[in-house]
Amino acid sequence: MSDVKRILYLDDEENNLVAFKALFRREYEVYTTTSPQEAVQLLNEFPFQVILSDQKMPDISGVEFFELTVTDFPDAVRVLVTGYADIEAVIDAINKGGVYRYVTKPWDENDLRICIENAFDKYYSRVELKEKNRALQQANSDLEKFIYSASHDLRAPLVTIKGIIQLAKMDQLGDKAEDYFQMIEKSVGRLDTFVQNIIHYYQNSKEESHIQLVDFNAFIDDLMNQYKIYDGADSVEWKKEVVATGEFFADNYRLKIILGNLISNAIKFQDRNKQSRELEIGVVQNAEKVVLKISDNGIGFNTNLLESTIDMLTSDSHKNPGSGVGLYLVREAVKKMGGKIQLVSNSGEFTRFTIEIPNKA
User: Fold this and answer.
1) Contact at 8 Å (CB) between 242 and 217?
2) Which residues does 111 contact at the CB level (< 8 Å), separation at least 6?
3) H-type helices in the chain, by residue range?
């Protein structure tokens, strides 16, 4: 939104333009012209919040000028200036040209000033409403994606558990019992992880930040110990490198959401066809920011899906299906912390997340 308050006034009488500019030049950036063509050119060059036009002009009426420009410049607030009592023209202007108000000539200075001030208020209210509607549409879109993902993630492990239970009923358990219960435990674990992500989602969106001193060496060690007990983690070679200068303050809880989900996904989406499976966590921290790099040589992301992956962050693996809710939480937590996230990946080769978070010291 432009901070400069601009007014464009089109009138075929030069004296009116001079008088208008003299009135408002100290408060607003005023552009005047007697040419409709020049008025259109100015509209293309500068953002105008308020446009005034005289109704009775030789080449084009004010109503026609507004009607001509309302499609290309819908946000500007239009004021019709008329020197004669033509109520039909005023009604026509409101219907066709999106006119906010009209003033009569010769104008009263106080009335005109109030009209201009109200027009600017109308403009900024309109733009604010537009921005709120855009944000609401984005929120609704994110919610729809979240609900869609949630329904699939909640149903998948439950269906698996149900199937395993049916097998257990039909089969004489014997030596197979342990395998069955391991499968049940794995599915329940997936469901539990997802439910925890839902909790994290609401906590991240509602809670205020709790800034604490972060010791990244100890912080990363704690996370690695926590996730090394996860299924498949024992087949991954863990690497850590921390370069820290000075003290760093951040929201510890949201840092755990970010790194925890990325570590979990790296374990989950490892490439089981590779003999060497690696997970590298790199930290470079100074007084200004921290740069976190989480890299793995797992299955990676399909290049064609990278853009949508960054947007909703969904996995394209058919071997290890996931809704991407965890990565969605990563993105939201990074945003809450005022940081930024970058993803680079090649399908079947590697995935690398780079995250920058400012120091809140």
Assistant:
1) yes
2) 103
3) 14-24, 36-45, 62-69, 87-96, 109-170, 176-206, 216-227, 252-268, 306-312, 325-336
Tens-place pLDDT, residues 55-87: 888 889 888 899 889 889 988 999 988 876 566
Mention the CATH class of domain 209-361.
Answer: alpha beta
User: Cβ neighbours of residue 156 under 8 Å, at least 6 residues apart?
Assistant: 190, 321
Look at residue 320 and tell me whether its pLDDT is greater than 50: no
Return all residues near 282 (Cβ < 8 A) that are at least 6 apart. Answer: 240, 241, 242, 291, 292, 293, 294, 295
Contact 320, 266 (CB under 8 A): no
Sign of CA dihedral 87, 91, 94, 96: negative
Taking only the tens place, the pLDDT of each residue in 213-261 is 999 999 999 989 888 877 788 899 999 999 999 899 998 888 988 998 8
* DSSP per-residue string spanning 134-152: HHHHHHHHHHHHHHHHHHH
Compute the C-alpha angle 251/255/259, nearest 5°: 180
Q: Tokens 């009335």 label which residue? A: 111
Sheet holding 278-285, edge to edge: 237-244, 278-285, 289-296, 350-358, 340-346
Boundaries of CATH 3.40.50.2300 in the chain? 6-107
Of 17-26, 46-55, 59-68, 212-221, the one with minimum mean pLDDT is 59-68
Sequence-separated (6 or more) residues with CB below 8 Å from residue 226:
260
pLDDT band at 142 (very low <50, low <70, confident <90, very high): confident
For residue 268, with 0-12 CB atoms within 10 Å meaning exposed, 13-18 middle and 19 or more buried, which class applies? buried
What is the mean predicted confidence (pLDDT) over 338-354? 90
- The CATH 3.30.565.10 portion of the chain extends over 209-361
Question: In a 3-state reduction of DSSP, which class is residue 350?
Answer: strand
Task: Kindly tell me the sign of the dihedral angle through the C-alpha atoms of 255, 261, 265, 267.
Answer: positive
Q: HSE (CB half, 13 Å, CA atoms) of 50?
A: 29
Residue 315 has pLDDT above 50, yes or no: no
Please determine, looking at this structure, whether the domain spanning 6-107 carries the CATH number 3.40.718.10: no
Tell me: pLDDT of 321 over 80: no
